[in-house]
Amino acid sequence: MLQNAQYDTIMREYNRRQLHNRQRQQEHIEEIYQKLPAIRKIDQSVAALTLEKTKALLAGASNGTADLKESIRTLSAKRRRLLMEEGYPEDYLDMQYTCPRCQDTGYVGNEKCLCFKKAALELLYAQSNLGEILEKENFAHFSFRYYSATIKNEATGLNAYQTALLAVEKAKNFIGQFGSSFQNLFLYGDTGVGKTFLSHCIAKELLDQAYWVVYFTAFDLFDLFARRTFDRDEEAAPWMDSVFSCDLLIIDDLGTELTNSFVSSQLFLCVNERLMRQKSTLISTNLGIRQFSDTYSERTFSRIASNYEMIKLIGQDIRKQKTLSGGYDYGTGQQ
Ligand SMILES: [Zn+2]
User: Fold this and answer.
1) Which residue, 120, 187, 202, 219, shows the most beta carbons closer than 10 Å to its own?
2) Strand partners, 93
3) Gap from CA of 126 to ligand 1 centroid (Å)
């Protein structure tokens, strides 16, 4: 789940918030002391009374603090009245918390506050390379209408529609078991059969469960590796860390990058490292199995074949279908 650095980022924001709210309270107090000296007098009296009482208790007086509490209550009521008479809200001098529930600490007792969970989700979304696209590309918008009943996969005997049903079922199993059993996915099939869309659906479900999901196109991923290796680019370092540490790494469109021996060795390194760390990976590619093996070496393919669930999608190019239908969205024909 959250890494130390991510946790620290969130806690820094709480500190910033506390500081900001404390400053604002201080400004209000100074403003009121200027305008209403009577209130300053009240505050001074409360401080003096408290000090007096504390001294008495320390000196061995045994008669509780009930009388002090009563005096403070009377003075506080007077203070509120004075504020309201001047047209201020009665809590104008109180600390105004951004989140009253946890008083901007992120915790209620030992439990993380709701606002912490929200902040964690926002951070994970921001670090995913996906963000807004997931508002449109998710299971609620997944449509089976684009998958034909007449196109058939001879090897399985299933048509495109049945194949898509099965793929979605496998994707949902993957999501359901994420965190309890270690799994990886290999999505393959021709251009436009919905592999990227399906990987976005999975990403959104897991991000919403506060898993650390990071998406890269193959092109961007290998560009990152190259910057790190050849240019010693410092900015690449935190991204490299996420490539190896995130809960789910999505490598999209493998095979579209300029493949060479560097790319091939980096892919092996990445796949292997994540397997050793038991961190899930989702790879999507337009390449067929044989082509994949020829392109990235037999050893990479054998690691994938023995550790990844293979999902093949078939059908007609969905982007072309959408264009032919004049951009008309068939809607969410989820079955
Ligand atoms: Zn809170």
Assistant:
1) 187
2) none
3) 20
Residues near 65 by beta carbon (within 8 Å), at least 6 away in sequence: 53, 57
The answer to whether the beta carbons of residues 176 and 139 sit under 8 Å apart is: no
Contact 264, 226 (CB under 8 A): no
The Å distance, Cα 18 to ligand 1 centre, comes to 12
Helix or strand (DSSP H, E) at 25: helix 4-35
CA of 119 to the centre of ligand 1 (A): 10
Q: Is 248 helix (H, G, I), strand (E, B) or coil?
A: strand
Say how many Å lie between the CA of residue 112 and the centre of ligand 1.
Answer: 8
pTM of the predicted model over 0.90? no
Cα–Cα distance between 152 and 162 in angstroms, integer? 9
SS3 content of the chain, % helix, strand, coil (to 5): 60, 10, 30
Question: 284: part of which helix (H) or strand (E)?
Answer: strand 280-285
205-220 tens-digit pLDDT: 999 998 999 999 999 9
Q: From ligand 1's centre to the CA of 203, what distance in Å?
A: 26
CA of 26 to the centre of ligand 1 (A): 22
Measure 117 CA to ligand 1 centroid, in angstroms. 9
- The amino acid at residue 102 is C
**10 CA to middle of ligand 1, Å?**
12
Task: Tell how far the Cα of 16 is from the centroid of ligand 1, in angstroms.
Answer: 14
- Centroid of chain to Cα 66: 50
Q: How many angstroms does the Cα of residue 106 sit away from the middle of ligand 1?
A: 5
Q: Are 196 and 252 spatial neighbours (Cβ–Cβ below 8 Å)?
A: yes
Token look-up 């061995």 returns 60
